[in-house]
């Protein structure tokens, strides 16, 4: 019998092929529902990941962005920050070495606001901070870094 690799088995070091069209600089936020989120992805050795893709899912809105050579990303997407005190976006991360994407969530509020959310009851209190975006000085601008492994590892969920 001849075994043929499936697409989930072929995410090796060539994952960045074809990603160039996905990477584009974010344009400034243009309304109170549009936000700009920027950050970096780091591997277990705290080295930037130059060939990852992040997908942000918030209600009916979906945005995809690839990281650049220095592991950074910047994305503009629509998100209503006024509907709930615990506004969030689900995030999928695809990158080399992963057979399937990892899933996480980002929250656009402070720790006191989200610490009692039922979705987070299994997350240790000292790790919830990895799910919080940081507000930048400019309006509707936020930052969030992802750590794939190590002491600062971002919380990932199994769904």
What does this structure look like?
This protein is mostly beta strands and 159 residues long. The chain has one domain: Sandwich (Protocatechuate 3,4-Dioxygenase, subunit A). Helices cover 3% and strands 30% of the residues.
Write the layout of secondary structure elements.
Blueprint: E1 34-42, E2 53-58, E3 61-66, E4 72-78, E5 88-94, E6 102-107, H1 111-114, E7 134-135, E8 141-143, E9 146-147
Parallel strand pairs: 1-8, 1-9
Antiparallel strand pairs: 1-4, 2-3, 2-5, 5-6, 7-8
Quick synopsis:
The protein is mainly beta.
Descriptive keywords:
159 residues; mainly beta; five-stranded mixed beta sheet; four-stranded antiparallel beta sheet; 1 helix
Helices and strands, in order, run as EEEEEEHEEE
Q: Assign an overall shape.
A: globular
Number of helices: 1
CATH architecture call:
Sandwich
CATH superfamily: Aromatic compound dioxygenase
Distance between the termini: 34 Å
What CATH calls the topology is Protocatechuate 3,4-Dioxygenase, subunit A
The overall strand count is: 9
Which secondary-structure class do the elements indicate? mainly beta
Kindly report the average pLDDT value: 82
Q: In terms of per-residue confidence, which ranges show pLDDT below 50 for 5 or more consecutive residues?
A: none
Helix fraction by DSSP (H/I, runs of at least 4)? under 10%
Largest sheet: 5 strands, mixed
Strand content: 25-35%
Rg from Cα: 16 Å
Total separate domains: 1
The CATH class is identified as: Mainly Beta
């Amino acid at each position: 019998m001849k075994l043929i690799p499936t697409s989930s088995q072929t995410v090796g070091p060539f994952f960045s092929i074809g990603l160039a069209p996905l990477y584009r600089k974010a344009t400034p936020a243009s309304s109170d529902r549009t936000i700009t989120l920027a950050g970096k992805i780091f591997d277990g050795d705290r080295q930037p990941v130059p060939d990852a893709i992040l997908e942000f899912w918030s209600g009916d809105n979906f945005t995809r962005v690839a990281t650049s050579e220095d592991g950074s990303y910047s994305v503009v997407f629509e998100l209503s920050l006024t509907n709930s005190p615990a506004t969030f976006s689900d995030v999928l991360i695809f990158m080399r070495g992963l057979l399937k994407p990892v899933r996480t969530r980002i929250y656009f509020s402070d720790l006191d606001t989200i610490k009692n959310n039922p979705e987070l009851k299994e997350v240790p209190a000292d790790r919830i901070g990895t799910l919080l975006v940081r507000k930048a000085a400019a309006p509707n601008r936020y930052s969030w870094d992802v750590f794939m492994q190590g002491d600062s590892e971002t919380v990932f969920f199994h769904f």
